[in-house]
Amino acid sequence: MISASVGFQCPDCVHEGARQTRQLELPFGGRKVDVPMVSYVLIGLNVAIWALIMATGGSSSWLADLLAIRPGPYCGIVDNPDRMYDVSQAVCQTMSTGVWVGGGVAGGQWWQVITSAFTHIQPLHLGMNMLALWFLGPPLERALGRVRFSAVYLLAAVAGSVAVMWFANRGSLTLGASGAIFGLMGAYFVVAKKVGGDLRTVAFWLVLNVAFTFTVTGVSWQGHIGGLLGGLATAAIVAYAPKDHRSRTQLIGLAVFGLLMVVAIVERVIQLS
Questions:
Q1: Residue 58: pLDDT band with limits 50, 70, 90
Q2: Strands 80-85 and 7-9
Q3: Nearest-CA neighbor of 180 among 45, 63, 66, 18?
Q4: Is there a domain that residue 129 lies in?
Q5: How far is residue 101 from each of residues 97, 159, 255, measured CA to CA in Å?
Q6: Does residue 8 sit within a domain?
Q7: Terminal-to-terminal C-alpha distance of the chain
Q8: Pairing between strand 80-85 and 98-101?
Q9: How far apart are CA 73 and CA 103, in angstroms?
Q10: What is the rounded radius of gyration, in angstroms, for the C-alpha atoms of the chain?
């Protein structure tokens, strides 16, 4: 018999209990997920915010302007607000056809770094992203666990925003979950490689979507590529953490990655201010 806190247990009972406990643990840490609730909640949030935007004016909604990401203030053209001059505020204020438009992340609207990943206007844009999330989210959530999956998704979304901050025009407006979706594709590739899965299908879809990014006008290549790199990096932190002290290593790794994203945003805000 084996001593236990409530008396004694037979060896077979202990081994069976240990086996059942291990079945609840996932290969990369965390607990088994029966219902991929995080994926469903993310889809629900995206749809709910889209509905609010439609209810407040659609493409002219003040809510869309508030939630979508704009790197910083810019010099707009009075007669055509969709166009802008690439000049400083001082120069813009001397131009009769220019008007300085405030706001954006560098203008204090810091929440756009994350809210832009939940913001859509066009139904097709929303539908494509949510369809991808429906297929990619549940299997990844079951493989990584809810907390780790959430971290990968959100950090990939932030990485997409960081790329927009650095490489898009300071006055450009970017929105959509595409950066986070590309992050999930990158994470899917990492997990498949780690477990020895067939990478051909994953690689095919990755190449196809990257090609789509650079061949279709109006697509934010910055958000897509930034999200993809963010998903690859964060998934690698989760999947390749050593088994000993795995949770602590993952926590530190993801925290460091998040801190680097914050530093990159702050540095860019300083440049744009």
A1: very high
A2: unpaired
A3: 45
A4: yes
A5: 13, 25, 34
A6: no
A7: 71
A8: unpaired
A9: 5
A10: 22
State mean pLDDT over 53-67: 95
Domain count, the chain: 1
Of 92, 96, 60, nearest to 73 (Cα)? 92
DSSP structural state of residue 25: B
Residues annotated as part of the active site: 178, 224
Quote the domain boundaries for residue 191.
Answer: 35-272
Helix %, strand %, coil % for the chain, to 5? 65, 10, 25
Is 39 inside a domain boundary? yes
pTM above 0.85, yes or no: yes
65: Cα within 13 Å, side-chain hemisphere? 13
List the CATH number of the domain containing 101.
1.20.1540.10
Helix (H) or strand (E) holding 157: helix 146-167
pLDDT digits (tens, 9 = 90+) for 178-214: 999 999 999 999 999 998 888 888 889 889 999 989 9
Name which of 148, 233, 136, 116 is nearest 181 in CA terms.
136
Q: Is residue 28 part of a domain?
A: no
